[in-house]
Amino acid sequence: MRFICDAMLGKLAKYLRILGLDTVYIKNMNELTPYCSSDYQFFFTRRRLIKGNEPPQSPSPDPLPRRGEGMLLPRSKLWGIIRIDRVVFIISDKAMEQIREIQDIIRPYVDLKKAMTRCIKCNTPLAPIKKIDVEQYIPEFVFHQYETFSICPSCRNIYWEGSHTAHMARFAEEIFG
Q1: What's the CA gap between 43 and 37, in Å, rounded?
Q2: Are 116 and 165 a contacting pair, CB within 8 Å?
Q3: Kind and range of the H or E element at 160?
Q4: What is the rounded CA–CA span in Å between residue 90 and residue 112?
Q5: pLDDT at residue 56 is higher than 50
Q6: Average pLDDT in the 19-25 region?
Q7: How far is CA 148 from the centre of its chain?
Q8: CA–CA dist 161, 174 (Å, integer)
Q9: Are 165 and 117 in contact (CB under 8 A)?
Q10: Mean pLDDT, residues 133-159 taken together
Q11: 21 with 109: CB under 8 angstroms?
């Protein structure tokens, strides 16, 4: 399963990648066209006025959902020509709350064993790299403190399990464990 986040959801895209989910981040809606296939089933957005794709009107006085209640529109049409199976309107502007909004949608696709296996910048799966090969590219204290490293084959960013790893693992376990 693959996901798409628009320009308003950059942090959400990073968190989904941390969870091991294949997540494309588009900065411009023109970039959406190549991803309109059956491989990309969910498009997450905070945009309210997507031509031909406005949130449905509710009989209540407040047509927008309350915080924490994302809207899911089946088989939506964007700009009259682009098709995505499901568009999910995100309410919150905070990444952790956004994850909670979509947790029921992404839960079937989260495998905690695959967490932290994708580059958070470019979405490429990470590859292991020998410690000796990263020495010149990382801070000295990191080199001496950690044994296991990964590299992104595309953008060459280097990753290791720092203190943030335990925090993310607790958060993921809390929501998906």
Answers
A1: 11
A2: yes
A3: strand 158-160
A4: 23
A5: no
A6: 94
A7: 24
A8: 19
A9: no
A10: 96
A11: yes
